[in-house]
């Protein structure tokens, strides 16, 4: 399977001041497109949303909610949506805060604009710890692993600096590609046995019977990311990014909030 297509970032503005801010933000973001006063507004932004585009609105939150309400499904499926004021002072994650990554994305966008992220979901005052879990075929090239990891980071809006560690199952303790990738990125690499990884089984997004029969857990990447995050903080972890894969490797990102 090929790498997933990276979702477009769509910046929607309704005023001249908002348009200027949109263009400024676009210059700092890869794959960002600006739509100024799109018409018909409601139908157009609904189409962007249903296409899975990551949306940044520079307008009132009420306009956004009234426009997107008919096409909102749930926090596990909807793309992240941010709302900015036209002066670029505040960044609000409106939809898919935790599960869709809008909270973390809002923090990153706010940093670009020297703005204030306004996060209202649970534990906004705590800094999360992020962990990467990876699985792969034997002798998977380091380059393929790195490409997959960077693609996953782009989808969540995270940087390498925000990642605490890379982990996998214990049968990958000697996997050269994973070891070298961790060394290159200056990240700890750790592995866990199937019994340890099995303790987070209920938190997985999907379960593979084939993987279970092969290595004893229902998913290597998600299990490793989740278990590592829990061990690091002592608190329950959650998936920030469900398992993504190429033909030879898998990657997932989890987070947990320290006590």
From TrEMBL:
Record the organism: Amphritea balenae
Entry-linked Pfam families: CbiG_C, CbiG_N
- The chain positions of domain CobE/GbiG C-terminal read 131-254
Q: Return the protein name.
A: Cobalamin biosynthesis protein CbiG
Q: Which Gene3D superfamilies match?
A: 3.40.50.11220, CobE/GbiG C-terminal domain
GO biological process annotation, one example: cobalamin biosynthetic process
The cross-references to PANTHER family, in alphabetical order and at most eight, read: COBALT-PRECORRIN-5A HYDROLASE
The record places domain Cobalamin synthesis G N-terminal at 44-122
């Amino acid at each position: 399977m090929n790498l997933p297509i990276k979702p477009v970032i769509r910046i929607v503005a309704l005023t001249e001041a908002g348009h200027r801010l949109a263009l400024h933000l676009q210059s700092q973001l890869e794959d960002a497109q600006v739509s100024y006063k799109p018409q018909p507004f409601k139908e157009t932004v609904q189409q962007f949303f249903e296409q899975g585009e990551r949306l940044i609105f520079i307008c009132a939150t009420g306009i956004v909610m009234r426009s997107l309400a008919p096409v909102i499904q749930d926090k596990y499926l909807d793309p992240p949506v941010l709302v900015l004021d036209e002066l670029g002072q505040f960044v609000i994650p409106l939809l898919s805060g935790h599960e869709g990554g809008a909270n973390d994305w809002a923090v990153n966008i706010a940093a670009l604009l020297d703005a204030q992220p306004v996060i209202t979901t649970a534990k906004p005052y705590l800094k999360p710890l992020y962990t990467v879990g990876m699985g792969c075929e034997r002798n998977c090239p380091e380059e393929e692993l790195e490409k997959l990891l960077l693609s996953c980071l782009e989808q969540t809006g995270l940087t390498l600096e925000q990642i605490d560690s890379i982990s996998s199952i214990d049968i990958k303790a000697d996997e050269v590609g994973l070891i070298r990738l961790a060394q290159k990125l200056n990240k700890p690499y750790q592995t866990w046995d199937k019994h340890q990884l099995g303790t987070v089984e209920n938190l997985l997004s999907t379960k593979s019977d084939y993987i279970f029969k092969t290595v004893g857990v229902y998913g290597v990447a998600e299990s490793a990311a989740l278990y590592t995050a829990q061990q690091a903080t002592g608190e329950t972890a959650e998936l920030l990014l469900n398992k993504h894969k190429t033909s030879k490797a898998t990657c997932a990102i989890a987070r947990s909030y320290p006590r």
